[in-house]
Every structure is written in C-alpha cells, then in structure tokens.
Amino acid sequence: MAKKILVTGAVGQIGSELVPALRKKYGAENVIATGHSTMPSDEFLKSGPFEIADITNVDTLRKIVEKYDIKIIYHLVSLLSAVGEQKPDIAWHINMQSLKNVLDIARDFKIEQVFWPSSIAAFGPDTPKNNTPNETILRPSTMYGVTKVAGELLCEYYNKKYGVDVRSIRYPGIISYKTLPGGGTTDYAVAIYFEAIKNKKYKCFVRKDTVLPMMYMPDCVKATLDLMAADNSKLKHRVFNLTAMSFSAEELAKEIKKHIPEFECTYEPDFRQKIADSWPKSIDDSAARNEWGWKPDYDIAKMTKDMLTEIKKKV
Description:
13 strands; UDP-galactose 4-epimerase, domain 1; about 325 residues; eight-stranded parallel β-sheet; alpha/beta; globular; Rossmann fold; single chain; three-stranded mixed β-sheet
C-alpha cells in the first residue's frame, strides 16, 4: 500500500511543480496538497486531494495528518526574501511556526520523512562568495535568511534528539515558466524571460554584473525527489548545498538575445541589490554529489531555449 504524502505550500513556485511530479510517481490519490492564501488552478484541484490549511495552526496540521494517515511531509510553506524584508514579523511567524509544527507532528506521529527547503539566503556578507562550502559562516542579513538558519538548526536538533529523518536543500535561485515570481530576490531571472517575449525589453532590479547561483525547475524537482529517495544511512548531512549554474544578469540577457536579437535589458538596482550582494556567487555542492549522486541536467543555454519555447506557448 502506497504511503500518503503531504505537501504544504503546494501552490507556490516549487510546490506547483513538485506536486504533479509526486503524483505521477506515487499516484494522485496518495499526494495530499495544501494551500492557504492562494487558490490553485482548476487543473491542479482536479489532479488530486487538496486541503485549505494554515500550517501555523498545529491543530489544523494534526487533523490533516490523522485524516489521511500521512507518512511523508514536504513542507514548502515560506515567505520569501524580498517580501520578508517588508514584513519581517510575519515572515518569522509563518516560516518558523509552521516548521516547528511540522517537526512536532513528525515526532509525535512517527512521520517517516520530512523535507524542508533551506536557501542560499542562509548565507550572508561574511560567507565566502566563491565556491561556498557546505559548512561555512551563516550570518544572513535578511529575516528570510535568519529563518533559514534557525530552521536548519531546528531540523538538525529534531534529527539528533528525536530521530526525525528530516532532509533539506539550500536552493539557489529557481527559474520556472509555470509560476510567476513570488517575492524573491532572484525573481529577475524569471521575469526577464516573460518580458523579453511580451515587450522585448526588461528593467532589471540588480546590476548587470550581479552573479548568483541558479537552477532550472526540472533540476530542482529532480534533486528534491532524489534526496528523499536516498539511503538515509549514507547521508552524512541533513542540509545540502545545491546548484546547477552561476551567471550574471548581463550574461542571462545576452543568452536571451541569441534567440530574440531585438531584446534590450536595462539595469536599475533597488533594495534587492543589497540582498543579492550578501549571497554567494558560486556554490560547492560536492556533499550532495558524493552522498546522493546529484548532477544537474540544465545549463544556461539549454534552460534559456526551453524557457523561451514554453513561455511563447503560454503568452
């Protein structure tokens, strides 16, 4: 009998693509999706079980876990970096209380596995910028980053003290054509594609020489599934660096111009530039490669070709 999987924050950027992948792999009826502030599309609602739930309420979470006899949780609820700076109190409450509730439920109900996403936002100005190691200085300059560092420590605590099998990835910027930007600092790397096709121009909110680690959504989904499928006895870490590529905003614009020669990109940095400057330029993800065989499929050229092709279909 298939194990029941719960995905919180299922309507967000990652969840909206992870849920279909999980349902394809494990059966639609075995993957229960939840959302709170944003309703999914009709297609999403028809694809499998969906519950409206505020995961910061532990009683609501408990009822869902009991109702479906949940065995695995992918906890994706989060308020992202740029929005978190505008609403730091709300970011702390949503990001930390929901995670604490999930870990408590995992402990009390003997949940077999928990996945929780961390982020490169856990790093900060004091972190080495190039080839950032898995074990390094974690002194973020955003509330979002603070919740990611606190969350990583909380996950490791529950693993050591209660034996909760919780696994986490420090995602880089995630690029996808299916979901519009949701308030993150790396959103320019998504918006630029849509604007290139619709308007042939884009005003970027970071400098042209801003280099950040990035990943295409198919690689993000693959990595998440691969980590959860990995043999627990072979994992030396609970939290893993992950990346696929690093490029500057200008390099991305030039790659798009190869397909849309008339495309023009201008650069007018705003408050998000300071956040971007505090993050690494490149990531050492050798722990993920060595412990569970991580290897990306997409580089900037392959990703750009696919993004433009798919967005043209939508627009």
